[in-house]
Design goal:
With 213 residues, the chain is of the alpha+beta class. It has one domain: Immunoglobulin-like. It has two helices and 15 strands. Strands 3, 5, 6, 10, 11 and 12 form a six-stranded antiparallel β-sheet that branches. Strands 4-7-2-1-13 form a five-stranded mixed β-sheet, with no helix packed on it.
């Protein structure tokens, strides 16, 4: 019972403290005038086994400052995409030692929110400067179902959860997001951007009033 109470206490503390840190960081910091040569970045790379209908998404972080918290929100479909998020693992990653690793999966909206904190007591150090994997996300595709290829993406999850890092000084950092290698293939290729832009222009021309000579 003691362990259960401690777990509940820590859970409530996490829910209260992490949002407070992220909200306070909006006011406590201003974007630096000189950008670093290599910006803070969150990357996703997918590995798809089409025979087993499984996908592994590797989430990596490059940070040129120490980090005391991270919120990593992702979308993995449009709500109807025949894909299921099975599990999220942090073992053998840069944040394996973090005490607070809070994954939230919304199967209706098909979103994932990762909240990461070293701990609440200050005994464990912040995430050191560096580059590497922080999480692995496992998906299963519905067998035989086809859908349009898509890229895993970052998103805004209400009320205020967006892709963000926070330093020990409570400075907020909005990192770059790289999902160029985060495609999930559903058997229906995406339309080329050139074709989509042409159709958009055609619609604009149809809506615009024609000039009389």
């Amino acid at each position: 019972m003691r362990h259960k109470s401690l777990f509940i206490y820590r859970g409530f503390a996490y829910i209260i403290i992490l949002p407070a840190m992220l909200m306070f960081s909006c006011f406590a910091s201003a974007p630096p005038k000189d950008r670093p040569v290599k910006p803070n970045t969150c990357r996703i790379v997918t590995f798809q086994d089409e025979e087993k209908n499984q996908v592994i998404a590797s989430v990596s972080v490059f940070n040129n400052e120490e980090l005391a918290a991270m919120t990593l929100p992702f979308s993995y479909g449009n709500g109807d995409t025949p894909i299921r998020c099975d599990s999220i693992k942090f073992d053998k990653t840069r944040v394996e030692y973090f005490e607070m690793k809070f994954p939230r999966i919304d199967t209706v909206k098909q979103t994932i929110l990762l909240g990461l904190l070293p701990d609440l007591s200050g005994r464990k150090p912040p995430l050191k400067k560096g580059d590497g994997e922080v999480a692995r996300i496992y998906f299963t595709l519905k067998k035989g179902a086809k859908f349009q290829d898509f890229f895993l993406d970052t998103t805004l999850i209400r009320p205020f959860n967006r892709l963000k890092f926070v330093t020990p000084e409570v400075k907020g950092i909005y990192p770059a997001f790289d999902n160029k290698k985060a495609m999930i293939k559903g058997g229906i290729p995406m339309k080329p951007k050139v074709e989509e832009e042409a159709k958009t222009e055609e619609k604009k021309e149809e809506k615009s009033p024609k000039k009389e000579n």
